[in-house]
């Protein structure tokens, strides 16, 4: 499911990157006339670090300085509700916003939220850490995204 979403957004990113004014959103649920720059679990032989590096380059093309700080939207998938609850609690302990809900296909739980402001250039290491947190709760880190004008 996340892999299909990644492929869709990766295609949009490749064809739509242009120089735009740097503007930050705190809630991408109301995105209108924004493009999403994201990374997700690798399915094409690229490592998570490679995908993150590509996404950071796309952000720079969109006018986002890699030294700027952003609230990053993130996603995890968990098979069991208890795992999703424990992961959500862990993320909140990290001072992130986080919530979980049943996925649209009702086969798993989605944990999503926003980080405190993070430096864009540090997302490569951050993603690796989020993958480790996911493993601790037997979940999968599905990636992150930033909406930019």
Could you walk me through the main structural features you see in this protein, from its secondary elements to its overall organization?
This protein is α+β, with helices and mostly antiparallel strands. 38% of the residues lie in helices and 26% in strands. It is built from 4 helices and 7 strands, in the order αβαββαβββαβ. It has helices at 2-16, 48-61, 81-93, 123-136; strands at residues 35-40, 69-70, 73-78, 97-102, 109-114, 118-119, 139-148. Strands 1-7-3-5-4 form a 5-stranded antiparallel beta sheet, sandwiched between helices. The protein has a two-stranded antiparallel sheet with strand order 2-6. A hairpin with a 6-residue loop joins strand 4 and strand 5. Helix 2 (48-61) crosses helix 4 (123-136). Residues 1-36 have low confidence and may be disordered.
Query: What percentage of amino acids are in beta strands?
Result: 25-35%
- End-to-end distance: 26 Å
Task: Report the total helices.
Answer: 4
- Kindly report the average pLDDT value: 75
Largest sheet, in brief, is: 5 strands, antiparallel
How are the strands of the biggest sheet laid out side by side? Answer: 1-7-3-5-4
How many DSSP-defined strands? 7
Return the string of H and E elements.
Answer: HEHEEHEEEHE
- The level of helicity is 25-40%
User: Judging from the principal axes of the Cα atoms, what is the shape?
Assistant: globular
Cα-atom radius of gyration: 15 Å
- The assigned structural class equals alpha+beta
Instruction: Enumerate the spans where pLDDT stays under 50 for 5 or more consecutive residues.
Output: 1-36
């Amino acid at each position: 499911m996340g892999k299909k979403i990644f492929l869709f957004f990766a295609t949009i990113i490749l064809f739509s990157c242009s120089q735009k004014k740097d503007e930050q959103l705190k809630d991408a649920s109301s995105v209108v006339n924004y493009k999403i720059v994201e990374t997700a679990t690798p399915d094409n032989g690229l490592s998570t670090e490679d995908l993150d590096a590509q996404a950071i380059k796309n952000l720079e093309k969109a006018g986002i300085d890699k030294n700027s700080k952003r609230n990053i939207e993130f996603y995890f998938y968990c098979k069991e509700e208890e795992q999703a609850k424990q992961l959500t609690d862990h993320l909140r302990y990290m001072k992130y916003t986080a919530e979980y809900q049943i996925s649209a296909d009702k086969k798993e739980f989605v944990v999503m939220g926003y980080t405190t402001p993070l430096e864009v250039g540090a997302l490569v290491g951050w993603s690796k850490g989020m993958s480790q947190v996911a493993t601790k709760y037997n979940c999968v880190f599905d990636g992150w995204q930033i909406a930019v004008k």
